[in-house]
Structure formats: structure tokens, C-alpha cells
């Protein structure tokens, strides 16, 4: 046991869990969606799995592509 | 016309039944006519928490099936004469009641009572559907644990799907010593995660165990948890009541008791 507080761990785990559960769809939908998005984006942009993270907020999906202007 | 309130949590063992008994009693202590209904078919418990287990003749299923009149199944509380219990059946058949029948029953009950409090079973199956069918308001009970909070979040989603928009949160079994060490989520941590308003927080209190052993309510006593339940009842009726300090460590009496323990 470390002497550190366990509350931040609990909160982080819960927040991550509830974000996906609140999307209100089948349990594996989030994983499937992440996989497909990863495949699509990696066709065009070089990305690694560790950098890739899909966040869904309730009833609002935002995909932001950050790049240089022409 | 009374208000129909369902007390629910998703997860079992977080204190729904104890909360139902104490809120029912507390509202009755405020002078309201109250009926508490145990909707957990097969696992009857509200009767024993209230100390009324020896007075049951008819039950919820008997009323629904027409084996008796509603009045015959109601049990008057030992202390609060304006408080009644409609006990659940011990039948194993969880489909003995349908949501439509519960809706009819609760609408009959709200003609006569100011508050109809429904103790919802754990889970999200038929029992949940029955319990929420006639409710216009819900109190979601959770404890500061990841499993209970996760289930509470699911339940909040389901309640909204059922068009129950008046939702309030009760956080039960808070251990202030653990919160202080940073090993239990505080009230603010839980409310930050769950999206509904807090109506009360109840400290983990061994007096509740003792009271339940005896089939007595804790609300109305001087204990911290008893006061917490009283405050929740006032807030239910719309009376603004300040949230009390759960951390009593710096109070005179706890200082004194620590001093005495030391010696």
C-alpha cells in the first residue's frame, strides 16, 4: 500500500467509465467505434495507439483535427 | 393529492430500505400522512426494518390480485399513527405485478396520503419497472464507492428515460475519518460525478445498525444520522435546511470523549 490518497484514482476511473456508459449504447459500441476511428484516421495520418484517445461527451461528439493551415 | 416518491439505487446493500423506513417515519413526524410500500417481490424487508413483521396478514400481491381490500393490507406503524406500511409478498414470482397495476395502485394511494414512498428492489429488471411506474419523483441512494456510484449513474439515466425529472441524491455511509485520510470520496467528489442535486448525506453510524436490530427508526433521535434523515425529510417537503457538518471531530463532546478515552 502506498501512502497516497486513493480518491483521485477512484474519481478518474469513474469518470472514464461513466463517459462511455452515458453514451447509452451497447457495451462494446465504444470499443468498436474507437477501433474504426483509429483505422480511418491512421489511413491518412501517422498515429500511434498510445496517442489515440476517443472522448465522447453526452449527446455531443466532437472530432477535432489539429493541423497547419495551407 | 400526494406525491409518489421512489427510493432506488441500482446496486443492492446501499441502504434503500433503511432510507425508506426513516424517510417515511420522518415525514410522518412532520405531521404528514405517509404510506411506505415495499415493492421488492420475494425479498420482503421493509417490514422487519420497521419492526412490523409480526403484523402482516395481506400483502401487495394480495391487493393487486384482489384477494383483499387495500385497507386490509395496510399496517399502521407502532409509533407514528399517520404512517402505514404496505408489505411485499414472499412469492418467488417476480412477474406477479405489472407496471400498469402499480400505476393504478399508487394513483389510488395518493388520493389518501400526502406521501407515497416506494422502496425499489435492487437491479434494473421488472421490479424496478414496477416501482418507478407510478412515481413522479425519485431519491437515488448511493454510497461513496465506485460500484454504487456507477450503478446510481445508470439508474439516473433510466429514471430520466421514464420521464421522472425530479431526481435527488442521497449519499449514505460516509466515513469522515476515511474522507479525511483521502481514502473515501467526499460528498463533493460524488456530486461532481453524478449529475443530480444532493438532498442529503448520511454518516456511517453504528446507531443505525442498533436501531435496525431493534426494528426502530433512527430519524427523530439526536444521533448524527438521525438528524441527517430529519433534514432530508424537511427538504423533501420543500423547507430549505442547511447541510450539517458531518465532521464533528472538533466539537466539544468529541474532544471530551477523546479525552476520556485516552485516560
Q: Can you characterise this structure?
A:
The complex is a heterodimer of chains A (70) and B (263). By secondary structure, chain A is mainly alpha-helical. Chain A is built from two helices and no strands. Chain A has one domain (1-70). Chain A has helices at 7-22, 29-44. The longest helix of chain A is centred in the N-terminal third of the chain and has 16 residues, at 7-22. Chain B has 263 residues and is α/β, with parallel strands linked by helices. Chain B contains twelve helices and eight strands. In chain B, strands 3-4-2-5-1-6-7-8 form an eight-stranded mixed beta sheet, sandwiched between helices.
The CA-CA distance between the termini of chain B, in Å, is: 57 Å
Based on CA atoms alone, the radius of gyration of chain A comes out at 16 Å
Helix segment tally of chain B: 12
Q: What does the radius of gyration of chain B come to? A: 18 Å
The percentage of residues in β strands of chain B lies in 15-25%
Compressed to H and E, one letter per element, the order of chain B equals EHEHHHEEHEHEHEHHEHHH
Strand numbers in spatial order across the main sheet of chain B:
3-4-2-5-1-6-7-8
Give the biggest sheet of chain B: 8 strands, mixed
CATH superfamily of chain B: P-loop containing nucleotide triphosphate hydrolases
Helix fraction of chain B by DSSP (H/I, runs of at least 4): 40-55%
Task: Tell me the helix content of chain A.
Answer: 40-55%
Helical run tally of chain A: 2
Q: Give the helix/strand class of chain A.
A: mainly alpha
Mean pLDDT of chain A: 74
Mean pLDDT metric of chain B: 93
Strand-pairing-aware structural class of chain B? alpha/beta
Total domain count of chain B: 1
**Span of the ends, CA to CA of chain A:** 53 Å
